[in-house]
Design brief:
The structure holds 2 protein chains of 2 kinds. Chain A is of the alpha+beta class. Helix content of chain A is about 40%, strand content about 20%. Chain A has helices spanning about 5, 10-15, 65-80, 185-205, 245-260, 310-315, 320-335, 335-345, 350-355, 360-370, 370-380, 390-400, 410-420, 425-430, 440-455, 455-460, 470-480, 485-495, and strands at about 20-30, 65, 85, 90-95, 105, 115-125, 125-140, 145, 160-165, 170-175, 215-225, 235-240, 270-275, 280-285, 295. In chain A, α12 (about 390-400) packs antiparallel against α13 and α15 crosses α17. The termini of chain A are far apart. Classes of the chains: A alpha+beta, B mainly alpha. β9 of chain A pairs antiparallel with β3 (about 90) of chain B, so a sheet runs across the interface. Chain B: Belongs to the GatC family.
Chain lengths: ~500, ~100
């Protein structure tokens, strides 16, 4: 689109306008069954193989609330410093779209189970308090495929296909209060909020919150205003589903809205689609008003009135807050602030934690997950978890280095092999013949050859120039295809030449 | 006094992507008004001392353990659908989502 060229830079946009943001995050709970029926929530099943009369909305079926889902909702609310409702109900959200076979979504409307909390996030060493408006329970919708149009979009499709396996999976929607932070850090604060929330959800153990699997989905509301003016009209950019995209989408919307307002236009309240490839948002549908959903209390579900004793019991199960845990781990691992931030931003905290728990060094664990594994995961556009190497594999590679069977160079090849699907580290070592040559017989022959081939270098070393040893080690490495134990080789060279 | 206006019916029709002719709007507005009027009679008998209620049962906290039950077979589920394709429910073109 040609509009792009007319956009002001981010700095130009915020020189005039202040952004106000609001984040809506949906978290799919990791319960075994759906919100209102006993259907399995297992990922990857055949389409429409995990449904029943309730989640298909068949006449006469009745929903019953999943107790673990309610517990999870309360625990999320407590971890976000929210008040927990003493009494609340579900509501029907009515709309015309086939992704719910009931023709409504069972949600909570004006009586959320948790409300009025906050979460603190840190950007560049400065702490910002993000107000939490509410966290409420609802159910996920089915998955649609649009057939017959270009690129699978609704526009131009001849018909659509529905898989209701996902319909009814418990969701918690977490909505912030308006976020008013200094304009220059706004996109970074949005990202930090989602990052921190993801970590909190994982620490609670209520969901793996993997954004690339849709277990955590983010909608970003953005509006602009002149300093001290009332809030402007907002847009809601839907399905911003990676941490990086959150920051990019907010930045883009600030620039786009600044261009519209500066040229005398007005912002339309609408939903917008985020395009990962171009880094732009495009207009979606004009947003329906809340009253268009004709919410009313769900007559088939009785109210939920969590006893204070129950809430206190759940409060006692809360994990250490992520910020406290990070500080403790950083100290235990001996990482600098920057190193720790890299680990967190890469989403590798639990992977490093697990790898260290299996016996690897913290530095080694960090090196592999943020190095070779991150590189390959990035190339393939998958998460670290899905790159093709397990915590046990990384731990094994580190153990092989520690016991002296691999040097760093060979270890890199082993990791490459595991990531390429060649098997476990031991299988890759065997198949590729990656053995560190450190027995004196084999290594000694290579050392003798190297000395014989470069008599002038050998002479320098005899004369006390130890800097020249590197040239011989290089030759030995070349001769052994990188499999020589460099330390041992050095010792053998010095034995012979001193 | 009518409890639903012709404009409200037109708005609902737009949300439902129904293309209603002016005479259909008049007709439906009249019918819906009658239905709402009938339901509204209940409010006439509700005295001020009767609080609004959404549930007839004096129950709260009816929960289910998080234990999987057997689901319906996909063939049976899709067999009951008007149309199916590739193991999925087939529905007509979805109108007016992006415009």
């Amino acid at each position: 689109m040609t509009v792009t060229t007319a956009l002001p830079s981010f700095d130009e946009a915020i020189a005039t306008y202040e952004p106000v943001m609001g984040m809506e995050v949906h978290v799919e709970l990791g319960t075994a069954t759906k919100m209102f029926c006993g259907c399995s929530t297992a990922f990857g099943a055949e389409p429409n193989s995990q449904t029943c009369p309730t989640c298909l909305g068949l006449p006469g079926s009745l929903p019953v609330v999943n107790k673990i889902a309610v517990e999870s909702a309360i625990r999320i609310g407590l971890a976000l410093n929210c008040s927990i409702a003493e009494w609340c109900r579900f509501a029907r959200k009515n709309y015309f779209y086939p992704d719910m076979p009931k023709n409504f979504q069972t949600s909570q409307y004006d009586e959320p189970i948790a409300f009025d909390g906050y979460m603190d996030v840190t950007v560049d060493g400065v702490e910002y308090r993000i107000g939490i408006e509410r966290a409420h329970m609802e159910e996920d919708t089915g998955k649609s495929l649009h057939v017959g149009g270009a690129t699978g979009r609704i526009h131009g499709a001849s018909h659509s296909l529905l898989d209701y396996n996902r319909s009814g999976i418990p969701l918690i929607e977490i909505v912030t209060k308006p976020i008013e932070v200094p304009a220059e850090v706004a996109p970074a604060v949005a990202r930090a909020y989602v990052t921190e929330l993801r970590e909190l959800i994982r620490a609670l153990g209520v969901s793996e919150a993997r954004m690339e699997l849709g277990q955590m989905r983010c909608d970003a509301n953005v509006s602009l205003r002149l300093p001290d003016a009332p809030f402007g009209t907002r847009t809601e950019t839907k399905n911003v589903n990676s941490l990086r995209s959150v920051e990019r989408a907010v930045t883009y919307e600030i620039r786009r809205q600044a261009a519209v307002i500066s040229s005398g236009g007005t912002i339309v309240q609408e939903t917008r689609h985020w395009h990962e490839d171009t880094g732009e948002t495009t207009s979606g549908r004009v947003k329906e008003e809340a009253e268009d959903y004709r919410y009313f209390p769900e007559p088939d579900l009785v109210p939920i009135a969590p006893a204070r004793e129950w809430v206190d019991e759940l409060r006692a199960t809360l994990p250490e807050p992520p910020a406290v845990r990070r500080a403790r781990l950083q100290e235990a691992w001996g990482f600098t602030d920057l190193e720790m931030r890299d680990v967190v931003n890469a989403g590798a905290l639990s992977l490093v934690f697990d790898t260290v728990a299996e016996g690897a060094s913290a530095g080694g664990a960090k090196k592999w997950w943020l190095g070779e594994v991150a590189r390959v995961a990035n190339e393939r556009g998958v998460s670290l978890e899905d790159a093709g190497i397990s915590v046990a594999d990384v731990t094994r590679v580190e153990a092989l280095i520690a016991e002296g069977s691999l040097n760093d160079k060979l270890a890199r090849q082993v990791v490459e092999g595991v990531l390429a699907g060649e098997g476990t580290p031991d299988e890759v070592v065997a198949a590729r013949g990656l053995v560190l040559v450190n027995d004196d017989a084999a290594l000694g022959a290579a050392v003798d050859d190297a000395i014989a081939a470069q008599p002038d270098v050998a002479e320098k070393i005899r004369g006390g120039n130890l800097g020249a040893v590197g040239a011989l080690i290089g030759a030995i490495m070349k001769a052994t295809k990188g499999q020589a134990d460099a330390k041992r080789a050095r010792a053998l060279i010095l034995e012979r030449l001193q | 006094m009518p409890s639903i206006s012709r404009e409200e019916v037109a708005h609902l029709a737009r949300l439902a992507r129904l293309d209603l002719a002016p005479d259909e709007l008049d007709h439906l507005a009249g019918q819906l008004d009658q239905i709402l009027g009938a339901v509204a009679q209940v409010t006439e008998v509700a005295a001020d001392d009767i609080p609004p209620t959404s549930h007839a049962l004096p129950l709260t906290n009816v929960f289910r353990e998080d234990e999987p039950k057997v689901c319906l077979p996909a063939e049976a589920v899709l067999g009951a659908a008007p149309a199916a394709e590739d193991g999925r429910f087939r529905v007509p073109q979805i109108l007016g989502e992006e415009g």
